[in-house]
Amino acid sequence: MANQTDEYIYHYTTMDGLKGILESGVLWLTNIKYLNDTTELHHGYEILNSLLKKRDCPEVGFTDDTYAFTASFSKDCDSLSQWRAYAKGGGVAIGFPRSAIWVEANHYRSTQFVFKDCVYSHDKIGCERILHEFLVDFNHQFQNVENEKFGGDNEDLKTFIYQNLALHYAPLIKHEAYCEEKEVRLLSKFYHEEILNHILLFDSQAKSPLKFRTQNGILKPYIEFEISNGAQSLIPEMQIVVGPNQHQCLALGSVKDFLRTKLDRNADFDSMVLPSRIPYREM
Question: Quick check: helix, strand or coil at residue 237?
Fold first, then answer.
């Protein structure tokens, strides 16, 4: 299988997920409080707080007005554990050029993004690096707010930004048991709506970017991240790995047929759509 794991990162999803992404031209970044498993997030907080304590810095924790959103990728295009977790019943790993995702993220005026490899708890140097980046970013963000001459108690605002910004770094620290996932996270730096208007992250008259989907009796908030915007579309640059499937050849052909409705029919679909090397077993 031809793949460039150093240049591409992969988003694992179901066939329904692939269809939705290609038809809408967007990825969904879900509010981090509503992820299926938040235990790993709590672990990131525990590590970050232990490091902050050593520097005599205030600890961090969840806030009720959390506005952080995330999408996950992997540097591994063919991971059995991720097929089982995210693509049950047959799915795909959608590969994107990493640099292209970052270029697209920088086009957004309404928010800023953190786009980094996760580090794992046994990687002490990596965890210290995340702490350093968090503290540098906090000082930069608070300085920007002071320059805008935001009214009110600056100490309260300082605490708010400190706590909220931590939510964009704690998720980058994961338990070492998950290290095989080789995860890369795209995280939005989104503040409470009242703060957004004052910091000028987006026009106060603009429509809210928040959208909602239903899952398991809950309305889950998310924001859209465009991957197809006219001439800037990332779809022609995708590499799609079709996961283990009882009908592998049929699944592979169906993805190619679907792409032919979205791209130039002369595109090289054989190099764009590849089969998993992992033998099928009921998952």
Answer: helix
How far is 159 from 165, CA to CA, in rounded Å?
Answer: 10
**Angle at CA 42, nearest 5°, toward 221 and 48?**
115
End-to-end CA distance of the chain: give it in Å, rounded: 22
Residue-level length of the chain: 283
Whole-angstrom distance, CA of residue 219 vs CA of residue 264: 37
Write down the residue that tokens 């989907």 correspond to. 213
Mapped onto helix, strand or coil, the DSSP state of residue 201 is coil
Residue bearing tokens 């990596």: 126
**Long-range Cβ contact pairs of 212-219 (< 8 A, separation 24 or more):** 213/28, 218/34
Instruction: Read off the amino acid at residue 36.
Output: N
- Nearest one of 58, 36, 56 to 45, comparing CA atoms: 58
Neighbour-count burial for 126-154, b at 16+ CB within 10 Å, e otherwise: bbeebbeebbebbeebbeebeeeeeeeee
CB atoms within 10 A of CB 37: 7
Do 47 and 120 touch, CB atoms closer than 8 A? no
Contact yes or no for 225/234 (Cβ under 8 A): no
Q: Cα(256)–Cα(250) distance, rounded to whole angstroms?
A: 10
Q: Residue 111 is encoded by which pair of tokens?
A: 């928010």
Model confidence over 213-257: pLDDT tens digits? Answer: 998 899 998 889 999 875 568 888 999 999 999 899 999 999 999
Taking the model in full, what pTM does it have? 0.85
Distance CA 114, CA 225 (A): 13
List, for residues 152-195, the tens digit of each pLDDT value.
557 777 887 888 888 889 999 999 988 999 999 999 865 555 44
